[in-house]
Amino acid sequence: MKTLNNGKKSGYSYTRSWMQMHCFGLIPSSVAKMSSGQSKIFLGNIFHCQNDPAKKQLYRISNEQGGFVIVKRSKIMAIGRKEDLEQARAQHLADEQDVMVTVLSDRQLLIPGFVDTHIHAPQYPNCGLGYDKPLLEWLQAYTYKLERKYRDLEYSRKVFNAVVRRTLNHGTTTACYFASLFQDASLILVDAVLKYGQRAFIGKINMTTLAPDDYVETPEETIKLTRKFIESVRSKIAN
Ligand SMILES: [Zn+2]
């Protein structure tokens, strides 16, 4: 969850046709850091989604004005109205000595984190560039040039750390990332989400056609490298 004062989120705009060309090999890769951290209570204006079986709707938005959120070791344990706080605190935090209480101002809202369902991490330096060209020219003029740079792992580290920090700062607590064609660079993105505690799905990009000769893999290579990528991610999470 994220406290926001202005509710603005920076936009990423990529066309769907490009996505269909290369969005293969997407795998769940990261879990947010769920098992550490101080216990917390937030008090104030809280928006959240909840089941509403009476109306046969999956979710409805609820504004718990004068509400609370209880967080224990980075996990949300309870959300409710202020009058139920003491009971909930006794239930969930009875054994906790050190609880940080944050009281939001009247102008602050606590809302669920944003979920970005489609973000190309390597394209971050190109954010907002290239609206003068149609898709295929845009790929040639801007995209492939930049995507090739991720052979350089130092550059990858710099950009991917920046992407994760920036999206988290804007309230994106979960992201579905398209990483690089290059496996080592893609693993650096995995390191970044683990380091900063963002929940993410990360896929190695697979390009076998319709791209420059030095930015494609054969179908055999791409399957082999994707399997290797999945194994590497699993071992990173296990450790
Ligand atoms: Zn895409």
Automatic annotation (TrEMBL):
Which GO biological-process labels does this protein carry? guanine metabolic process
Keywords (A to Z) from UniProt = Hydrolase, Metal-binding, Zinc
- Pfam families per the record? Amidohydro_1
Q: Which residues form the Amidohydrolase-related domain?
A: 110-227
User: Per its Swiss-Prot or TrEMBL entry, what cofactor is needed?
Assistant: Zn(2+)
Kindly indicate whether the keyword Hydrolase belongs to this entry. Answer: yes
Molecular function (GO) terms for this protein are: guanine deaminase activity; zinc ion binding
Q: Name one GO cellular component term.
A: cytosol
The cross-references to PANTHER family, in alphabetical order and at most eight, read: GUANINE DEAMINASE (PTHR11271)
Name of the protein in question: Amidohydrolase-related domain-containing protein
Originating organism: Acanthoscelides obtectus (Bean weevil)
